[in-house]
């Protein structure tokens, strides 16, 4: 009992000493995401020649045989780009304009479609490693990517624009000054918007995210002031946040010709894809897909200014 009283007295004394001392709360510095490095400009300049693909053909070859033998076409897609490729919360299925095209290719091959949600930064390396057969993920055809992978002929022509808050005026790159701008890592959007800011003589802070949903979250939390990307993608973001987000009337500052990506060795698969795309344009199913997924949100955009080019 005497030993217990001693312990209690020591505890009380220690508490008294601590109370008498003056302690200030330790201040933890607020975390700030480091500013992204300025993206490097492309090593080449994309011309109309770079939009040429291989002549359409259903003859097939090693790649087509491989896929038919496996019974499945593995396609990398977006899971968060509303209208193009996103998960329907009701059905839990990925759907959109790009998915419709991927499904048609699988149907024509006579195999099942297996979609794999990937980031923009993953597209090329997953094709090069043959972990996937194709990429149908609003992927822009350009000369730099042609040196690493192969592309189908152009199947849609988008243009890069800027999304801002609904109470902010925006008319062009000169209005970017001082803004924190988001675009997904590994996209041409980052390079393009930095180039436009430099030409306009204004300063921007690039704050990229892993995908467009990440950009929208940053936008809604006030971490960024604007999101840049293809008009198709931005239309999907506005559809998710009509109260605070808008894409003001503006001229697109780039052309974004979409192509289906493939491994460079799979020329016969690219030719097969081109044959399917030609059929979709001629039988009206391409137009039906556009009308279903994109027309309502892009009513001011001509859906057919592009012309597929071949003879690569």
TrEMBL record:
It comes from the Bacteria. The keyword Chloroplast does not apply. CDD domains: PBP2_GluB. PROSITE patterns: PROKAR_LIPOPROTEIN. Residues 72-297 form the Solute-binding protein family 3/N-terminal domain. InterPro entries: Bact_solute-bind_prot3, Solute-binding_3/MltF_N. Residues 1-19 form the signal peptide. Residues 49-58 have a biased composition (Basic and acidic residues). PANTHER family: ABC TRANSPORTER GLUTAMINE-BINDING PROTEIN GLNH, AMINO ACID ABC TRANSPORTER PERMEASE. Belongs to the bacterial solute-binding protein 3 family. This is Transporter substrate-binding protein. The lineage of its organism: Bacteria, Bacillati, Actinomycetota, Actinomycetes, Propionibacteriales.
